Amino acid sequence: MRAARYYGRNDIRIDDLPEPEVGPGQVGIEVAWCGICGTDLHEYLEGPIFCPTPETPHPISGETAPVTLGHEFSGTVYAVGEGVDDLEVGRHVVVEPYIIHDDVDTGPESTDYHLSPDMGFIGLSGRGGGLGEKIAVQRRWVHPIADSVPLDQAALIEPLSVGYHAVQRSGAKAGDVALVGGAGPIGLLTSAVLKALGVTVVVSELSPLRRQKALEAGVADHALDPRETDVVAAVRELTGGRGADVAFECTSVQVVLDTLMEALRPTGVLVVVSIWGHRSEFDMFTLVMKEIDVRGTIAYVNSHPATIELVESGKIDLAPFITGRIGLEGLVEEGFDTLIHRNETAVKILVSPSGRGL
Ligand SMILES: [Zn+2]
Fold it and tell me: Domain Enoyl reductase (ER), which positions (predicted)?
Protein backbone atom coordinates (compact mmCIF):
# COMPACT_ATOMS: atom_id res chain seq x y z
CA MET A 1 0.00 0.00 0.00
CA ARG A 2 1.05 3.60 -0.45
CA ALA A 3 1.69 6.04 2.40
CA ALA A 4 3.14 9.54 2.85
CA ARG A 5 6.04 9.36 5.26
CA TYR A 6 7.92 12.08 7.12
CA TYR A 7 11.69 11.69 6.96
CA GLY A 8 12.60 15.10 8.36
CA ARG A 9 12.24 18.79 7.62
CA ASN A 10 11.29 19.42 3.96
CA ASP A 11 11.41 15.69 3.29
CA ILE A 12 8.13 13.82 2.80
CA ARG A 13 8.04 10.83 0.45
CA ILE A 14 5.31 8.60 -0.93
CA ASP A 15 6.47 5.06 -0.11
CA ASP A 16 5.25 1.56 -0.86
CA LEU A 17 4.72 -0.24 2.45
CA PRO A 18 3.42 -3.67 3.50
CA GLU A 19 -0.17 -3.56 4.77
CA PRO A 20 -0.43 -3.34 8.58
CA GLU A 21 -1.05 -6.49 10.58
CA VAL A 22 -4.28 -6.28 12.55
CA GLY A 23 -3.26 -7.61 15.97
CA PRO A 24 -5.33 -8.63 18.99
CA GLY A 25 -7.49 -5.76 20.25
CA GLN A 26 -6.95 -3.79 17.07
CA VAL A 27 -9.19 -2.60 14.26
CA GLY A 28 -8.07 -2.57 10.61
CA ILE A 29 -9.28 0.58 8.88
CA GLU A 30 -9.25 1.38 5.17
CA VAL A 31 -8.74 5.15 5.15
CA ALA A 32 -11.32 7.12 3.15
CA TRP A 33 -10.20 10.71 3.75
CA CYS A 34 -7.46 12.42 5.74
CA GLY A 35 -7.22 16.16 6.38
CA ILE A 36 -3.99 18.14 6.20
CA CYS A 37 -3.43 19.91 9.52
CA GLY A 38 -1.39 22.97 10.49
CA THR A 39 0.67 20.62 12.66
CA ASP A 40 1.70 18.64 9.55
CA LEU A 41 2.89 21.91 7.95
CA HIS A 42 4.89 22.82 11.08
CA GLU A 43 6.59 19.41 10.99
CA TYR A 44 7.41 19.92 7.32
CA LEU A 45 8.69 23.51 7.67
CA GLU A 46 10.20 23.59 11.18
CA GLY A 47 10.10 20.04 12.53
CA PRO A 48 10.57 17.51 13.85
CA ILE A 49 8.31 18.64 16.73
CA PHE A 50 5.93 15.73 17.50
CA CYS A 51 7.65 13.46 14.96
CA PRO A 52 10.63 11.39 16.09
CA THR A 53 14.06 11.90 14.48
CA PRO A 54 15.96 9.00 12.84
CA GLU A 55 18.06 8.75 16.06
CA THR A 56 15.54 9.36 18.88
CA PRO A 57 12.62 6.92 19.04
CA HIS A 58 9.28 8.10 20.43
CA PRO A 59 9.17 6.92 24.07
CA ILE A 60 5.90 5.00 23.64
CA SER A 61 5.70 3.92 19.99
CA GLY A 62 9.44 3.16 19.93
CA GLU A 63 9.50 4.33 16.32
CA THR A 64 12.02 6.58 14.62
CA ALA A 65 11.65 8.60 11.40
CA PRO A 66 10.38 7.91 8.82
CA VAL A 67 6.81 7.80 10.16
CA THR A 68 3.51 7.87 8.26
CA LEU A 69 1.70 11.22 8.54
CA GLY A 70 -2.01 12.04 8.93
CA HIS A 71 -4.06 12.26 12.14
CA GLU A 72 -7.42 13.66 10.92
CA PHE A 73 -9.04 10.71 9.20
CA SER A 74 -12.12 8.62 8.58
CA GLY A 75 -12.53 5.19 7.04
CA THR A 76 -14.21 1.81 6.89
CA VAL A 77 -13.43 -1.22 9.07
CA TYR A 78 -11.97 -4.02 6.90
CA ALA A 79 -10.80 -6.39 9.65
CA VAL A 80 -11.00 -6.78 13.40
CA GLY A 81 -8.37 -8.39 15.62
CA GLU A 82 -8.90 -11.06 18.22
CA GLY A 83 -11.10 -9.91 21.11
CA VAL A 84 -12.81 -7.07 19.22
CA ASP A 85 -16.48 -8.04 19.17
CA ASP A 86 -18.32 -4.70 19.13
CA LEU A 87 -17.35 -3.42 15.68
CA GLU A 88 -18.20 -5.15 12.44
CA VAL A 89 -16.46 -5.06 9.05
CA GLY A 90 -17.96 -2.32 6.89
CA ARG A 91 -18.62 0.05 9.79
CA HIS A 92 -17.68 3.71 9.26
CA VAL A 93 -15.28 5.03 11.89
CA VAL A 94 -13.06 7.91 12.91
CA VAL A 95 -9.94 7.74 15.05
CA GLU A 96 -8.98 9.65 18.18
CA PRO A 97 -5.30 9.53 17.30
CA TYR A 98 -3.58 9.16 20.68
CA ILE A 99 -0.46 7.25 21.63
CA ILE A 100 -0.55 6.96 25.43
CA HIS A 101 1.25 4.72 27.96
CA ASP A 102 -0.65 1.50 28.72
CA ASP A 103 -0.82 2.23 32.48
CA VAL A 104 -2.73 5.53 32.02
CA ASP A 105 -6.46 5.45 32.80
CA THR A 106 -8.17 6.32 29.51
CA GLY A 107 -11.66 5.33 30.73
CA PRO A 108 -14.79 7.37 30.04
CA GLU A 109 -14.48 9.29 33.35
CA SER A 110 -10.90 10.43 32.73
CA THR A 111 -10.42 14.15 32.21
CA ASP A 112 -6.65 14.20 31.81
CA TYR A 113 -5.28 11.26 29.80
CA HIS A 114 -4.32 13.72 27.07
CA LEU A 115 -1.92 15.38 29.51
CA SER A 116 -0.08 12.17 30.47
CA PRO A 117 3.72 11.88 30.09
CA ASP A 118 5.15 11.25 26.60
CA MET A 119 1.71 11.57 24.96
CA GLY A 120 2.03 11.33 21.18
CA PHE A 121 -0.22 11.19 18.13
CA ILE A 122 -0.88 8.49 15.57
CA GLY A 123 0.18 10.06 12.28
CA LEU A 124 2.99 12.07 13.89
CA SER A 125 4.71 9.91 16.50
CA GLY A 126 4.33 6.44 14.90
CA ARG A 127 1.73 3.62 14.66
CA GLY A 128 0.82 4.47 11.05
CA GLY A 129 -1.26 7.39 9.86
CA GLY A 130 -4.25 8.51 7.86
CA LEU A 131 -2.05 9.41 4.90
CA GLY A 132 -1.64 5.69 4.23
CA GLU A 133 -4.21 3.45 2.56
CA LYS A 134 -4.70 1.24 5.62
CA ILE A 135 -4.00 1.41 9.35
CA ALA A 136 -4.42 -0.82 12.41
CA VAL A 137 -5.57 1.06 15.53
CA GLN A 138 -6.28 -0.09 19.11
CA ARG A 139 -10.04 -0.45 19.65
CA ARG A 140 -9.99 2.20 22.44
CA TRP A 141 -9.22 4.95 19.92
CA VAL A 142 -11.73 3.94 17.22
CA HIS A 143 -15.13 5.68 17.27
CA PRO A 144 -17.99 4.38 15.08
CA ILE A 145 -20.08 6.97 13.24
CA ALA A 146 -23.52 6.76 11.64
CA ASP A 147 -23.71 5.96 7.91
CA SER A 148 -25.61 9.24 7.51
CA VAL A 149 -22.39 11.20 8.03
CA PRO A 150 -20.43 11.29 4.74
CA LEU A 151 -16.87 10.03 5.19
CA ASP A 152 -15.32 13.24 3.80
CA GLN A 153 -17.07 15.32 6.47
CA ALA A 154 -16.18 12.71 9.10
CA ALA A 155 -12.47 13.44 8.52
CA LEU A 156 -13.13 16.84 10.16
CA ILE A 157 -14.40 15.30 13.40
CA GLU A 158 -10.86 15.24 14.82
CA PRO A 159 -10.24 19.01 14.47
CA LEU A 160 -13.88 19.64 15.50
CA SER A 161 -13.09 17.77 18.74
CA VAL A 162 -10.31 20.30 19.34
CA GLY A 163 -12.95 23.04 19.13
CA TYR A 164 -15.31 21.06 21.35
CA HIS A 165 -12.72 20.69 24.10
CA ALA A 166 -11.77 24.39 23.83
CA VAL A 167 -15.42 25.38 24.27
CA GLN A 168 -15.75 23.02 27.24
CA ARG A 169 -12.70 24.64 28.82
CA SER A 170 -14.35 28.06 28.46
CA GLY A 171 -17.55 27.14 30.28
CA ALA A 172 -19.54 29.03 27.58
CA LYS A 173 -23.32 28.54 27.71
CA ALA A 174 -26.35 29.46 25.60
CA GLY A 175 -26.95 33.21 25.52
CA ASP A 176 -23.28 34.12 26.00
CA VAL A 177 -21.34 36.26 23.55
CA ALA A 178 -18.01 34.84 22.35
CA LEU A 179 -15.22 36.62 20.51
CA VAL A 180 -13.05 34.31 18.36
CA GLY A 181 -9.69 35.70 17.26
CA GLY A 182 -8.74 34.07 13.93
CA ALA A 183 -10.94 32.11 11.51
CA GLY A 184 -8.52 29.43 10.35
CA PRO A 185 -9.79 25.83 10.52
CA ILE A 186 -9.66 25.68 14.33
CA GLY A 187 -11.23 29.14 14.81
CA LEU A 188 -14.04 28.21 12.40
CA LEU A 189 -14.67 24.80 14.00
CA THR A 190 -14.58 26.30 17.51
CA SER A 191 -17.17 28.83 16.27
CA ALA A 192 -19.29 25.96 14.92
CA VAL A 193 -19.39 24.32 18.37
CA LEU A 194 -20.24 27.66 20.04
CA LYS A 195 -23.10 28.30 17.59
CA ALA A 196 -24.45 24.79 18.12
CA LEU A 197 -24.61 25.58 21.86
CA GLY A 198 -26.60 28.78 21.28
CA VAL A 199 -23.73 31.23 21.83
CA THR A 200 -23.57 34.48 19.82
CA VAL A 201 -20.27 34.39 17.90
CA VAL A 202 -18.16 37.36 16.80
CA VAL A 203 -15.14 36.49 14.65
CA SER A 204 -12.18 38.78 14.03
CA GLU A 205 -10.23 37.79 10.92
CA LEU A 206 -8.04 39.56 8.33
CA SER A 207 -8.82 37.33 5.32
CA PRO A 208 -12.01 38.33 3.46
CA LEU A 209 -12.46 34.77 2.21
CA ARG A 210 -12.38 33.35 5.71
CA ARG A 211 -14.76 36.00 7.04
CA GLN A 212 -17.12 35.14 4.20
CA LYS A 213 -16.76 31.42 5.01
CA ALA A 214 -17.61 32.05 8.67
CA LEU A 215 -20.82 33.88 7.70
CA GLU A 216 -21.83 31.53 4.86
CA ALA A 217 -21.34 28.45 7.01
CA GLY A 218 -23.49 30.16 9.64
CA VAL A 219 -20.92 29.72 12.42
CA ALA A 220 -20.48 33.46 13.08
CA ASP A 221 -23.11 36.13 13.69
CA HIS A 222 -20.59 38.88 12.97
CA ALA A 223 -17.28 38.64 11.09
CA LEU A 224 -15.11 41.73 11.60
CA ASP A 225 -12.02 42.98 9.76
CA PRO A 226 -9.80 44.31 12.57
CA ARG A 227 -8.10 46.73 10.13
CA GLU A 228 -11.40 48.44 9.42
CA THR A 229 -13.45 47.93 12.56
CA ASP A 230 -12.62 48.67 16.17
CA VAL A 231 -13.30 45.13 17.41
CA VAL A 232 -13.37 46.10 21.09
CA ALA A 233 -15.89 48.90 20.46
CA ALA A 234 -18.02 46.62 18.27
CA VAL A 235 -18.16 43.92 20.97
CA ARG A 236 -19.08 46.52 23.61
CA GLU A 237 -21.88 47.80 21.42
CA LEU A 238 -23.22 44.27 20.94
CA THR A 239 -23.18 43.55 24.66
CA GLY A 240 -24.64 46.78 26.04
CA GLY A 241 -21.19 48.01 27.07
CA ARG A 242 -20.36 44.87 29.08
CA GLY A 243 -17.85 43.00 26.88
CA ALA A 244 -17.57 39.40 25.65
CA ASP A 245 -18.25 36.58 28.11
CA VAL A 246 -15.63 34.29 26.58
CA ALA A 247 -12.83 34.72 24.04
CA PHE A 248 -10.80 32.20 22.01
CA GLU A 249 -7.27 32.95 20.85
CA CYS A 250 -6.66 30.98 17.62
CA THR A 251 -3.73 32.81 15.96
CA SER A 252 -0.72 33.06 18.35
CA VAL A 253 -0.48 36.72 17.32
CA GLN A 254 0.21 39.32 20.04
CA VAL A 255 -2.21 42.00 18.81
CA VAL A 256 -5.06 39.45 18.74
CA LEU A 257 -4.32 38.43 22.33
CA ASP A 258 -4.37 42.12 23.37
CA THR A 259 -7.68 42.74 21.58
CA LEU A 260 -9.32 39.73 23.24
CA MET A 261 -8.16 40.78 26.71
CA GLU A 262 -9.58 44.24 26.13
CA ALA A 263 -12.87 43.00 24.67
CA LEU A 264 -13.61 40.59 27.55
CA ARG A 265 -16.02 41.59 30.29
CA PRO A 266 -14.89 41.58 33.93
CA THR A 267 -14.64 37.94 35.15
CA GLY A 268 -14.61 36.79 31.49
CA VAL A 269 -12.70 33.70 30.34
CA LEU A 270 -9.92 33.68 27.75
CA VAL A 271 -9.07 30.29 26.22
CA VAL A 272 -5.74 30.06 24.38
CA VAL A 273 -6.22 27.48 21.61
CA SER A 274 -3.26 28.21 19.34
CA ILE A 275 0.14 26.68 20.04
CA TRP A 276 2.50 29.57 20.78
CA GLY A 277 6.04 28.89 19.59
CA HIS A 278 7.24 32.15 21.18
CA ARG A 279 6.64 34.00 24.47
CA SER A 280 3.88 36.58 24.62
CA GLU A 281 3.82 39.99 26.27
CA PHE A 282 0.89 39.42 28.50
CA ASP A 283 -1.27 42.28 29.81
CA MET A 284 -1.18 41.28 33.47
CA PHE A 285 -2.72 44.60 34.57
CA THR A 286 -5.94 43.95 32.63
CA LEU A 287 -6.02 40.36 33.90
CA VAL A 288 -5.89 41.59 37.51
CA MET A 289 -8.23 44.57 37.16
CA LYS A 290 -10.93 42.53 35.36
CA GLU A 291 -10.33 39.25 37.23
CA ILE A 292 -10.03 37.42 33.93
CA ASP A 293 -9.48 33.65 33.83
CA VAL A 294 -6.90 32.54 31.25
CA ARG A 295 -7.08 28.84 30.34
CA GLY A 296 -5.03 26.67 28.03
CA THR A 297 -6.50 23.87 25.95
CA ILE A 298 -4.78 21.09 24.02
CA ALA A 299 -6.41 18.55 21.71
CA TYR A 300 -9.32 16.67 23.39
CA VAL A 301 -10.15 14.22 26.14
CA ASN A 302 -13.20 11.97 25.94
CA SER A 303 -14.58 14.62 23.55
CA HIS A 304 -15.23 12.43 20.51
CA PRO A 305 -18.61 10.90 21.51
CA ALA A 306 -20.21 14.33 22.16
CA THR A 307 -18.56 15.84 19.07
CA ILE A 308 -19.81 12.97 16.87
CA GLU A 309 -23.30 13.50 18.31
CA LEU A 310 -23.24 17.17 17.25
CA VAL A 311 -22.49 16.07 13.67
CA GLU A 312 -24.86 13.07 13.56
CA SER A 313 -27.75 15.17 14.89
CA GLY A 314 -27.17 17.76 12.15
CA LYS A 315 -26.40 20.55 14.66
CA ILE A 316 -23.06 21.03 12.88
CA ASP A 317 -22.60 20.77 9.11
CA LEU A 318 -18.96 20.18 8.23
CA ALA A 319 -19.40 20.32 4.43
CA PRO A 320 -18.66 24.07 4.06
CA PHE A 321 -15.17 23.68 5.52
CA ILE A 322 -13.90 21.23 2.87
CA THR A 323 -12.20 23.37 0.21
CA GLY A 324 -10.07 20.83 -1.66
CA ARG A 325 -9.66 17.12 -2.44
CA ILE A 326 -6.43 15.57 -3.71
CA GLY A 327 -4.60 12.26 -4.03
CA LEU A 328 -1.42 11.27 -2.20
CA GLU A 329 0.80 12.31 -5.12
CA GLY A 330 -0.47 15.90 -4.81
CA LEU A 331 0.18 16.09 -1.05
CA VAL A 332 3.24 18.35 -1.04
CA GLU A 333 3.12 20.22 -4.39
CA GLU A 334 -0.61 20.87 -4.26
CA GLY A 335 -1.84 20.47 -0.67
CA PHE A 336 1.06 21.76 1.43
CA ASP A 337 1.94 24.43 -1.13
CA THR A 338 -1.58 25.89 -1.05
CA LEU A 339 -1.72 25.91 2.75
CA ILE A 340 1.77 27.39 3.11
CA HIS A 341 1.64 30.06 0.37
CA ARG A 342 -2.07 30.72 -0.23
CA ASN A 343 -3.39 29.82 3.18
CA GLU A 344 -6.25 32.37 3.05
CA THR A 345 -7.74 30.62 -0.01
CA ALA A 346 -8.32 27.29 1.73
CA VAL A 347 -9.82 25.88 4.90
CA LYS A 348 -9.50 22.08 4.93
CA ILE A 349 -7.87 20.10 2.13
CA LEU A 350 -8.68 16.38 2.21
CA VAL A 351 -6.50 13.59 0.83
CA SER A 352 -7.78 10.27 -0.51
CA PRO A 353 -4.78 7.93 0.05
CA SER A 354 -6.12 5.22 -2.27
CA GLY A 355 -7.38 7.79 -4.81
CA ARG A 356 -10.76 6.06 -4.78
CA GLY A 357 -12.56 9.06 -3.31
CA LEU A 358 -11.51 11.37 -6.15
ZN1 LIG B 1 -4.33 18.40 13.69
Answer: 8-351
Q: How far apart are the first and last CA of the chain?
A: 17
State how many domains the chain has: 2
Long-range contacts of 147-150 (CB under 8 A, 24+ apart): 147/92, 148/312, 149/92, 149/308, 149/311, 149/312, 150/319
What CATH number corresponds to the domain at position 291?
A: 3.40.50.720
Give the Å distance between the CA of 88 and the centre of ligand 1: 27
Q: 277 and 332 share a domain?
A: no
50 with 130, same domain? Answer: yes
User: Distance from the CA of 286 to the center of ligand 1, in angstroms?
Assistant: 32
Distance 74 CA to ligand 1 centre (A): 14
Residue 291 in this model has a pLDDT that exceeds 90? yes
Least confident of 119-123, 152-156, 175-179, 345-349: 345-349
Range of the domain at 284: 162-296
Mean pLDDT calculated for residue range 25-37: 98
The pTM for the full model equals 0.97
Per-residue confidence band for 179, with pLDDT thresholds at 50, 70 and 90: very high
Residues lining ligand 1 (ion), CB within 5 A?
37, 39
Q: Are residues 150 and 178 in the same domain?
A: no
- Residue 311 within any structural domain of the chain: no
Tell me how far the alpha carbon of residue 115 lies from the centroid of ligand 1, in angstroms: 16
Assess whether 48 and 106 both reside in one domain.
Answer: yes
